[in-house]
Amino acid sequence: MGNIVAIAVEKIQKYIFQKIDNSPQDKKTLQNIIAASNQVAENILDEINEEFNILPSKEDLILWISGKTVFRSDLSKKEITEKCKKLFEKIYRVYQGQIFLKYVTFEENSNCNMEILRRADRELKNPVNKSNILKNSHELLFQFTEVNKKPEQYIYKEKDKKWKDVFLKGMDDLAVQDERYDIGSSDGKIAIIKADINNLGRIMSSLGTYDLYKKISQLLEDKIKIDAFAEHIKNYSEKEKCDLQLKVLPFYIAGDDIFYATRIDSVFDTINVLRNMINNINTEIKEHTNQKVSIELSLAVGVVFVNNHQPIRYYRQLVEHELSIAKKKIKTEKSLQALVGISMAGNSFHIYKNGLGFGECDGFFRFTKEIDELKDMLQKQVFTNTELHNLLINLEVESKPEQKFYYTLYFLKPSLQKGEIVNDELYFKYYWLSHLIEESTGEKDQSEKGFDLKKIDNVLIPKIKLVLLFLREKYSNPLDEVEYQYIKSTNLVSKIRSVMFHKPLNYLLKSMNKKEYKERKKNNHDELINLFIRIKNIGKRLYLAVDFQISVFFRAKTLIENGKKNEVPSLFEKYDEMIKSKI
What sequence ranges are listed for the domain Cas10/Cmr2 second palm (predicted)? Predict the structure, then answer.
């Protein structure tokens, strides 16, 4: 038997980002860098083939995918190591030390390709192997030589431009100009999105046969690249009858990473494209494996909104922070239910599997529907952006949580007229106040859920900022010509009553009992308050108002006007005795 050679290309993404950061953001340069997402790895594979002459004899080829190859060779280990060292040093020089070539060779002691692949993975990941590579090329690595800038075309061999009419050519094209104020300017906010595919490693390690491993590896390479992304955008635009073409600028799409910029009015649509991509890959994996693989790929997505003309490395740092939040949440809290986890400017959303989760507070599709409803209410002048912005300012200026909550209650206080139980304005206020309801513990707890004041900073403020952004005319799409009906069920009416009336009153009364108990004890006022309010426990702690007739208050008013205010408590006490049986 001969020897096995395994070579893997590392840090391509880092190299691409470095090129983006260090290059002028002109259209030609960005196009070349974008094209390099897949082509850097392909070019290196070409170098490997040239050195070892692999492809003409395909029976020796075990794996040949972008960024990785495993093959048989009749050369001795010494000859293989020399060739790999030569390749390593050439790649190191060409790509200015930004790309690392890992290689290993071992004797073929098995005819099972799957066993060979598994051993190759283990050997490539072994830290000892990396140390040996560094030792073999230490003279080059520790040379201090001037970096010569090579022609870009050496790196980027654009073979295919299927996507040239799909993607934008430069960053300035992302900024939406306001015809009233921004004539001739490319300033403005843009969206940066970075997605990471989860469970790839788990799926690959669960594949039992070589043929299956090879098929799935090729499938993933074909589905996660710039051409595939462009195809999904075109298909989505046709199916949904929306214009998503020439609204996206990809930076890097390969491996398990997708990184791009888009116009703000296209954020929702591009996230839907990502969902379609991951759904499509999961479906094909099931078809290839005859449903034997139970693990599904999921997607974590980070979204930030930034001003144009900032360095791309700054965008990347911000979006990777959001991405890390989305990854943590989907892995720890939503691993079984969610297909896509999204962290968008401090707001968490999920796309659930099998079309479920629409009723969940963090449902992505629910949020997109809410934005349309809020746009409709804005057009109907149910509220103004200025009012919402003033609420945001007051919440951010105030430091004490309770004062923030009191201001929130004041801003969202119900304003009912003509005997209406619910109306559009009340629904608008309910929408915001409902963000502060305590989370369910999941246990059979009959106690009433109150307000969680921590949610003002963690949930309410980020959501107001996000909504204000999407409500801006220059960043939003036109509404469909439909009649929006916000309140569709009696169940929702019941929730509105609870959130807008019962819970605020219960909170205020409970807060008053806690804060003013000692003071009231001194002044013997507890008895008087208890005449008007009853605490009743019926599974939930409720504060009930005593049903006094209006005539009693007129009599009390007369006593006070006649200088007999000391008789007022006894007046209510006597009346209270009469109605106790009703409560």
Answer: 190-330
Cβ contact 421:397 at 8 Å: no
- Tens-digit pLDDT profile for residues 282-294: 999 999 888 777 8
Question: Long-range contacts of range 367-375, CB-CB < 8 Å, 24 or more positions apart?
Answer: 368/268, 370/431, 371/467, 371/470, 371/471, 371/476, 372/479, 372/480, 372/484, 373/484, 373/486, 374/428, 374/431, 374/467, 374/471, 375/471, 375/476, 375/479
Which two three-digit tokens encode residue 133? 């590579």
Whether the CB-CB separation of 383 and 468 falls below 8 Å is answered with no
Q: Do 527 and 429 share a structural domain?
A: no
Domain presence at residue 421: yes
Based on the fold, state whether residues 121 and 174 are members of the same structural domain. Answer: no
Q: Are 402 and 458 contained in the same domain?
A: yes
CA distance 222 to 232: 13
Asked if the structure places residue 156 within a domain, the reply is: no
DSSP label of 318: H
**What's 250's domain CATH number?**
3.30.70.270
Nearest to 332 by CA among 195, 198, 196: 198
Domain for residue 157, yes or no? no
Residues 6+ apart with CB under 8 A from 10: 99, 100, 101, 102
Which tokens sit at 142? Answer: 């520790």
Tokens 């003013």 identify what position? Answer: 516
Domain end (from 129, 151, 173): 151
**Do 519 and 506 fall into the same domain?**
no
Residues 31, 396: Cα–Cα separation, whole Å: 41
Q: Specify if 159 maps to a domain.
A: no
What are the C-alpha distances in Å from 320 to residues 119, 170, 261, 278, 397? Answer: 32, 22, 13, 20, 28
pTM of the full structure = 0.82
pLDDT of residue 156: 41
Paired strand residues for 256: none
Give yes or no for residue 534 having a pLDDT over 70.
no
CA distance 62 to 67: 14
User: Nearest to residue 530, comparing CAs of 569, 578, 567, 503?
Assistant: 569
pLDDT > 90: percent of the chain:
40
Mean pLDDT of the chain: 82
Helix pair 210-223, 113-125: axis angle to 10 deg: 60
Indicate the number of domains in the chain.
4
Separation CA 376–CA 423 (nearest Å):
14
Q: Quick one: pLDDT at residue 233?
A: 94
* pLDDT at residue number 568: 82
Which residue bears the tokens 């007999």?
Answer: 564
Residue 209: CA count within 13 A, CB half-sphere = 7
Is the same domain home to 501 and 519? no
Query: How far is Cα 542 from Cα 563, in angstroms, rounded to an integer?
Result: 36
Identify the domain containing residue 488 by its residue range.
Answer: 365-510
Q: Would you say 563 and 553 are in contact if contact means Cβ atoms under 8 Å apart?
A: no
What percent of the chain is helix, strand and coil (3-state, nearest 5)? 55, 15, 30
